[in-house]
Amino acid sequence: MLEKIDLKKKCSGKDYKEKLEAEAERLSLLQRKCKEAGIPVIIVFEGFGAAGKGTQINRLIQAMDPRGFSVYTSNRETEEERMRPFLWRYWTKIPAKGRFTVFDRSWYRRVLVDRFDKITKKEELPNAFHDILSFERQLADDGTVIIKFFLYISKEEQKKRFKNLEESKETAWKVTEADWKRNKEYDEYLKINEEMLEKTDTDYAPWVIVEAMDKNYAALKIISSVTARLEQELAKRAVPGEKKQNEKPVMKEDYKSGVLSGVDLTKTLSNKDYKKKLDELQKKMEILHSELYRLRIPVVICFEGWDAAGKGGAIKRLTSHMDPRGYQVNPTASPNDTEKAHHYLWRFWNNMPKAGHIAIFDRTWYGRVMVERIEGFCSEEEWKRAYQEINEMEEHLTNSGCVVLKLWLHIDKDEQERRFKERMENPAKQWKITDEDWRNREKWDEYEKAVDEMLVRTSTTYAPWEIVEANSKYYARVKVLETVVEAMEKAIDASKR
């Protein structure tokens, strides 16, 4: 593939200046248009060492308003980043609507440098490629424009540039032993890069190969590629109802025979048995939490359920014996303006736990396929697409060693009404009930249909749903603890094998 690229292409100084000026004006205008249209843009720079990524990024951004972009350099993972899924640091850097993020190296490090250095094992590659493709497709589906450049130079040119860099004290630090190793084994590293390009060249995030032997030619190709792509994307969005090339038809399915209708809500527990089991399980949690931290196992616990189903009470009993330094409870409210300006999963990625810690979500990303679906806060296309996006996110978490637990606390409509009235009559609990709760209750049947579909489509082998019969608060709290304890014990046993 790459060996067929003509690396002799050049551009004279005069042509470069004339063409660059025209392209720079176009890019400046297009940046403003993207801001007005609320289009987030990601520009990725990959390629061989000394191919000029830093130089080309600097030339590109000269034409742009610095208030509208960020540049992120992807070096070796920090200790903080190593303790999280590898895409976490990129999810937290994605641009808001109307902004640009330029990545000097990116998530492809996982399947390039880290693969060459044997940090990424061979058996980890399929999952890594799958996670990368899912990441890019989710962003593209949400409206992000992804432009990827691969800067290509020959082995001889790379060697020459390394030597030139080493001759100056100011630049010698840029060349490492690892760089020379990749130059020495250039053909092997070339194959790794070719495989990456073949596996990740998609219609929604295609690669642009840049012949980078001549820096002027490379700069013009990069800026003209960016302007052409942005003009194309702006034109596409200007036509109402136009389908994206990568849009796939969503199959309609009938979930009339619901999951929730078969739940036995008569299950209960006496006060005596409740106190006994609660004490035993909380003591176990105390030990297991410490062991999880020692073994560096991250855990995500998701609480969903009807209003007044008892999520808060269950979380309180779950965490009562846990070290507060090792867990974080994340209550999910309506997204603020900053969160609305990003992909809907962005705010959750910002709260994912590092290795050995527990993140508890009181309501989660599943709001996309429940409240946002029912209340019309997202389009039908968006919530139907979300099932796959959510499954892929959870798969990436589990691929990285995270335990993902999902609990749906289920009560019936009569029990909810009783609890609502109880809250209204108790001054200490009146704050828990709002007009919105009563309005949501009027749409019970719609929500039940949405929940049934959610449970069917997102209960996976790696992150299954556990339905908690919650008409009895005692029974529900104990079942939550039993479920979490069992999952933690399994994860700990598996890590010791």
What is the approximate shape? elongated
CATH topology of the largest domain, anyone?
Answer: Rossmann fold
Largest sheet: 5 strands, parallel
The chain-level structural class is alpha/beta
List the helices and strands in order: HEHEHHEHHEHHHEHHEHEHHEHHEHHHEH
| Relevant CATH superfamily of the largest domain | P-loop containing nucleotide triphosphate hydrolases
Q: Quick one: how many beta strands? A: 10
Q: Please, how many helices?
A: 20
- Beta percentage is 5-15%
Strand order of the largest sheet: 2-3-1-4-5
At the first level of CATH, the class of the largest domain is Alpha Beta
N-to-C terminal Cα separation, in Å? 42 Å
Overall tally of structural domains:
2
Average residue-wise pLDDT: 92
Tell me roughly what share of residues is in helical segments.
Answer: 40-55%
- Low-confidence stretches are 243-257
- What Rg, in angstroms, do the CA atoms define? 26 Å
CATH architecture field of the largest domain: 3-Layer(aba) Sandwich
